[in-house]
Each structure stands twice: as C-alpha cells, then as structure tokens.
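User: I'm new to structure prediction. If I give you an amino acid sequence, what do you actually give back? Let's try with this one:
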Amino acid sequence: MQRRKTRNVRVGGMTIGSDAPVVIQSMLSAPSYDMAANISQAIRLRNAGCQIIRIAVPDREAVKLIAALKEQVGLPVVADIHFDYRLALESVSAGVDKVRINPGNIGGEDRVKAVAVACANAGVPIRIGVNSGSVEREILAKYGGPTPAAMVESAQYHCALLERYDFYDIVLSLKSSQVVDMIEAYEKMAEVCDYPLHLGVTEAGTKAMGIVKSAVGIGSLLTRGIGDTIRVSLTDDPVEEVYAAQNILRSIGYYQKGITIVSCPTCGRTRIDLIALAKQVEEALAQVEKPLTVAVMGCVVNGPGEASQADIGIAGGDGCAVLFKKGQVLRKVKEEDILQQLLLEIEKL
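Assistant: Good question. You get back a string of structure tokens that encode the predicted 3D arrangement of the chain. For your 349 residues, that looks like this:
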C-alpha cells in the first residue's frame, strides 16, 4: 500500500507522518486528580504497546500529571485542552510533548498567537481536533449540519489560525461517530493538505460495536494509505483500545510484532473441538512478540493448502491433527498433544 505523503511531526521521541510507522495512541480515563491511578493506567497502556498517551487537562492541578507521567512512564504525553488557553501554556512549560486544541475555542487572536509561539519555541506540535460536535455555528449553517465538507472547512479554518503565525507543526483529526462521514471527511482532508492525520471514530461505543466501527472506519482509510496515527475509542478499559488498534494494523500488515492467528469457522467435517483450541492457542501466544502467522484449521481440506502461507499451523483430524509449516506437513499428533506440540514448534522459529 502506498502511504499518503505527509510532512513529519515529532512528538517527544516519536515521529508522526508518512516516513514513520503508524503510531498507536490511547487516552487515560482515570480522574485527572488521581495521580496514582493515572500513573498505573499509563504503565499498563505502555506495557500493552501504546506509544503515545493523551490526558485531559481541565484545570491547573491536572498539569502536574505531565511531569509525573514523563518521569515514571516514559511515553510522549499529549495535553487535551478546551477553552482555557492558559492551560495550554502551562502544559508546554511543564514539558508536554503535544497539545490538542481547537484554536477557535480558546479565545481571540492574541491567545491563539500565544499558544502558537509557546509551542513553536518549545518544539511542541499541535493537534487540531475537529469532530462532528465541535464545528462552528456559521459553518454548520452553511452546510446544514456537521457534514464531512463542514468538518474539512472547520479544520482548514483552524489550520489558518496557526499558519498565520508561521506554525505548521500540525496534526489533524476529523472524527465523527458516523463511520461513513468520518471516512469521507478524512478522504477530503487528505486531498487538500499534507499534514499528518490522526484517525478515529469518536464515541464509537462499547467494546463489541466500538471495535467494529473503528475497524471499518480506521481500517478502510489505512488500506488507501490515509492515516499516520490512530486511536480506537472505546467505552472500556483503554488497554482494550490498544489491543484493538494493534489488531487493525496487524490485519493489513502494518504491525510487525506478535502473532497473527488464522483459523477457519469450522464445518461438518471438523472432528476436534476447534473453537476451544483456537482460543487456547490465542491465549497461549498473547505475549509472544515474534511476527508469526499461526493457523488453526478444522480439517485437512482447510489445512496445509488454504493456510499454506502460515509460518506454522495445525489441521484437525478425527481425534488428532497434523502439524504443518509453510504448507508442508511435519507430523501427526494426538488431539491431547496438539497445543503442546504447536507451541514447541513455535519456540523453534
């Protein structure tokens, strides 16, 4: 897939843009005043594979989180600012790695300029976060609602506010809870600028539906080369967002770490408990970082042939299975030994 060419933006030690891999982000959900809970959650996110964390900064007390997170967690930190430009300035002074704002809702030109100058002097980029609920009234009136075209015009307006002060270290997001609108907004934005794009479906919902909506929205854009950093927004433990993001990237070959499992849906030919076995394999390999494809197939019809590109796999039989590697059968094993023998072969790879 050919990535859309963008300028590069540095966020702490990370690069966001087409010259770097797609970056996984999440946001802390612990109360902003609870330092210990935020540190604990951030460590869990880091250990799960999150690369950038965002925090809400509703008041000056929350600014204290920035230094603590950078010292104890070590990931780049993004400050999410609404309305009070002074919180953006204080976050920059506290060492934040990126600021997320809507330049249009922090006050007059002097305040926008103050934030742009402070970020420029500190080398801190700004993410302009537009979503369907934040489009300006006059733009809503022009388009009759928060349409994709309305979100793009709003984003262009916000970019112009920063560009007026020669600030171009910008990342853009145009999120909507409507997947089709989200896709169209990003497509339109990708045509009119070279800023890196942060992808996400806002208010996607709880885990089950939220992952589906995010996979459709984020995944469809990534397959067309659009998108440089992603967040899967879920009403759930944010660690689940990271796992979902990894799986989206892994499914299209953008995430080269960990196990990709290929398994068939089973049919009347299946003579082993494949559903339980597939779940056992997935659980056993959850912490393996080798970039391998492992096949768990119900029978020889869907085994070495259809899963021939798998690095290693099993194909079930009647109370047994065959182990195969790159489509070539290695040996036959008893049903009770399948998982153990599969794991032994994976250790050799």
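You can read the tokens as a compact description of the fold. Here is one thing that stands out. Residues 148-163 form the longest helix (16 residues).
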